[in-house]
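Hi U.,

Before I forget, here's the chain from the pilot set. I'm dumping it here mostly so it's searchable later in email.
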Amino acid sequence: MNFLKHWSIIRPQIEWARPGRTRLRLKKLKWFLNDWELFQELFTQQKDFQKLTLLPSLDDKNVTNGSLTYHYFYQDLFVAQCLFRDNPHLHVDFGSRIDGFVAHVASFRTLEVLDIRPIEQSIPNVLTRQADLMGDVSHLANYADSVSSLHVIEHLGLGRYGDPININGHLIGLENIYKILKPGGKFYFATPFGPQRIEFNTHRIFNLSYLMEYLKPRYEFLNFAYVDDGNNLHPSVELTSENIKSNLGQNFACAIFELRKK
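Structure:
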């Protein structure tokens, strides 16, 4: 392989490489350039395509088929399956991923989605409105048969998404969700858990004992699932006193609560 011959291809790829990664980039370029020379020869022998240009993609050959996005893949799929099973009359979501959970649910039913950020696209089966979960929700009191909020509460009040700074933003958001739910309504709630801390301005991580103290007076516990530190789903786990105290041995896991408003 004559690397100088292909310097116009090699140079931008080396410049794109992160510091200390040039050798790995050159290794990937080697197979790419071999493929490029072979394909150029084959291209001259066909008549269906008249134009051949370059757009190197070097990082897909040795990875698995797709990625299970940390926490979100299992969380979104699991709660969407719960919603399919329960089939509430009116479901409202606060801030969950549009390209994950919301898309899953919209494939089989309508839902309302509220987010502090504007949602400009028109999405089939998705009714959207811009709203601050820390704001006044009195006009939505006892509104929804079920509510979901997945990996959202931990961000409220940290300013990351344009929300106002508020040290108790997570509690205000949880109280507003409680107000919006009808009596007997279901709350599908997911948030990080582990040793309690704030990693500003990204998120909070909650002790299970802290979450339980807030949720127990307000909700009946129907199921607890979690995605562990290794990104494995545990679909139904008993919250014993030891599990709560130890945070199930996790540092940054995702708790998934299925709750019913008392």
